[in-house]
Amino acid sequence: MFDYHEIPPIAILRNYVKCYFVFQLEGHPGFSDIKYPNGQIEIAFNLGPSAWRSEIDNKAQIDPRVELLGLITQPMLIKSLGDTLMLGIRFYSHTAGYFFDHPLEDFNNQILDLRDVMGRQVKELYEQLLNETVMDKRVEVIERFLLKRLAETMGNDKLMLLNRVATELQNSPEKNVKLLASQYNMSQRNLQRLFLRYMGITPKLYGRISRFQQVARHIGESGESLTDVAYKFGFADQSHFIKDFKAFSETTPSGYTPPVLPFN
Length: 264
Prior knowledge:
Blueprint: E1 2-7, E2 17-25, E3 31-35, E4 42-46, E5 52-56, E6 59-62, E7 66-69, E8 76-80, E9 84-91, E10 111-113, H1 114-118, H2 120-131, H3 135-151, H4 157-171, H5 177-183, H6 188-198, H7 203-221, H8 226-232, H9 238-249
Antiparallel strand pairs: 1-2, 2-9, 3-8, 4-7, 4-9, 5-6, 5-8, 7-10
């Protein structure tokens, strides 16, 4: 059995959580895929019998049972080592900061044990998820946890500002960061600090990753020439387009293969 599906959050969390995702694999020797940079932070609870293995920047590890996947800026290889049941939380790029006390740049390009990062409350949450057998009930357990965390950070002016700026940058990823900072009466340095603290990367890098994601989806859906794609997404020339795409995928646009799972 091979099943991947996404579950929408309740209304009050819909602006903060993109989705919950469930991945189940039974009777299969293993599964591997590539996760590309998408500007998003995720939490994943391993509720199955087998471990997962990941590799980024030529460094491999056996992943913890409660994963905090920081924002990645290069491709990550992932592989299940047998039957799998994963339940995950996918945050929007600009909303993960509502749920973590640490600067998000500390998590970049890593899979950490969330129990080490957040302590007893996550250990108890994981035990509750293991003891529950119905997936809908497990999601309810997670949402109670998220709502409690959110109540502690609601009204944070810096996070609300980040929300507005990041949304604009996602819609226009080629926008000049200096002009963007000026638009919000900020210095470029303060805007960069805001992004690093609550998103994990600089505004410029976020814009590049957003554009990479848009280009990758477009390549998979259209039959346009690479020259036309480069022009459409605002690259100065095809050489710049290929270089930027390769920085996040380690392959050229013509050699790009979309991932099996819609993690990106």
